[in-house]
Specification:
The complex is a heterodimer of chains A (about 170) and B (about 190). Chain A is α+β, with helices and mostly antiparallel strands and about 170 residues long. Helices cover about 30% and strands about 25% of the residues of chain A. Chain A is built from four helices and seven strands; from the N terminus they run αββααβββββα. In chain A, a hairpin with a 6-residue loop joins strand 6 and strand 7. The radius of gyration of chain A is 19 Å and the shape is globular. The two termini of chain A are about 30 Å apart. Chain B has about 190 residues and is of the alpha+beta class. In chain B, the strands form two sheets. A five-stranded antiparallel beta sheet of chain B has the order 5-1-4-7-6, with helices on both faces. In chain B, strand 2 and strand 3 form a beta hairpin. At the A-B interface, strand 3, strand 4, strand 5, strand 6 and strand 7 of A face helix 3 and helix 5 of B.
Chain lengths: ~170, ~190
């Protein structure tokens, strides 16, 4: 796929490859090796180079999904389902910004009451953070022998709770 | 007030989300399970029966797996399920799937942006396994009631009993895991 055929914020795999290749070509010049890290403009989007691009694309995809969930109609599930609430979205986005840069991007799910939850799941390890809105969230980590949880974490706290960081570092990098 | 009278008085329409809280407030720890709560019911939900939850796309089914949010209704309006004598989902139960999807698609507002819902299959779990889940303080987590309807006498509802939000979510995920043990039953 040609780079020109991709939308500025395209994230499908073909566009991602096209943009990624273009970035490598820009960075390489004629015979210079690529730098270990750098930012380059591609059309209107500032994107990181080489290996950084894949998680970045996942993050763009996640943010787009959050947008989509906020635009669902009332009664989206035919049973009174509400779209994601603005406050729930804001708190979830604040959480995402504080994720370790090398951790895996979470999945997202929406409850019928408009509450966004982010989660990671692999084998028997599961982490979930739920954002009911109101500037706080709750989370739990679940494994074969249970795991830590907290009912009330401030969404604007500087750092994520240590148990989440540790679980991500151990299982989702 | 009897449990049946109480369940018949539960709100519908815009206030349907209040149901789980009202039940937990007035009849905590699933105490109404010992009484039939619907005049259309064939009888109390027994431990050796199976609960079947119909699964619709798109939001509750991601990458071949059902997300715990598919069970979020337990905490407000009630998780609508079907009851069966066996684990294997019957053709009669499957038949409700497309009907449910059609009804949900038709009831959405005109011009709704959301992707249409489609029936992908059903999950089933033994009643005793769901009822055996308990919170850290040893109290009951889910109540299963025979909320039969005039045109669907096998209808039951699952409601979650009160606890902290994180603990509720953890147990909801455990319920998802129990349901998922038998895999997704699809129409053959």
């Amino acid at each position: 796929m040609l780079l020109e055929q991709c939308a500025p914020s395209a994230t499908d795999i073909y566009c991602a490859n096209a943009i990624s290749n273009a970035v490598v070509n820009i960075s390489r010049g004629d015979d210079k090796p690529p730098p270990s890290y750098g930012f380059y403009y591609s059309k209107e989007t500032l994107i990181p180079s080489t290996w950084e691009f894949a998680p970045r694309a996942e993050l763009i995809r996640l943010n787009r999904k959050l947008d989509d969930l906020s635009k669902l109609p009332l009664n989206w599930d035919g049973y009174g389902g509400r779209p994601a609430t603005v406050q729930s979205l804001n708190d979830a986005r604040a959480f995402i910004k504080r994720l370790p840069t090398h951790s895996r991007v979470p999945n997202v799910m929406l409850s019928g009451n408009g509450e966004i939850s982010l989660f990671w799941e692999e084998n028997d390890i599961y982490i979930e953070a739920a954002f009911p809105g109101g500037g706080a969230y709750h989370y739990f980590v679940d494994g074969p022998t249970g795991g830590p949880s907290d009912d009330d974490v401030q969404a604007n706290a500087d750092k994520l709770p240590l148990p989440i960081i540790l679980a991500l570092e151990a299982h989702f990098v | 007030m009897s449990c049946r009278d109480f369940f018949e008085s539960l709100p519908t329409g815009d206030a349907v989300n209040l149901r789980a809280g009202l039940i937990d407030q007035s009849h905590p720890r699933a105490c109404c399970e010992v009484e039939s709560v619907s005049k259309y019911s064939p009888g109390l939900v027994r431990e050796d029966e199976y609960i079947v939850r119909l699964i619709l796309t798109p939001h509750h089914f991601q990458e071949g797996k059902v997300v715990p949010a598919a069970f979020s209704d337990v905490d407000d309006k009630g998780l609508s399920c079907q009851r069966q004598a066996d684990l294997v989902v019957t053709a009669d139960t499957h038949a409700f799937g497309p009907l449910l999807a059609d009804a949900q698609n038709e009831s959405r507002p005109d011009g709704a942006r959301a992707e249409s819902r489609k029936y992908v299959g059903a999950l089933s779990a033994k009643v005793a396994d769901i009822r055996s889940l308990i919170y850290e303080n040893r109290s009951r987590v889910f109540g299963i009631y025979d909320t039969a309807l005039p045109d669907n006498t096998a209808h039951i509802d699952v409601f979650q009993c009160g606890s902290g939000p994180a603990e509720k979510k953890r147990l909801r995920k455990k319920m998802r895991d129990i349901f998922f043990l038998g895999g997704l039953h699809q129409v053959k």
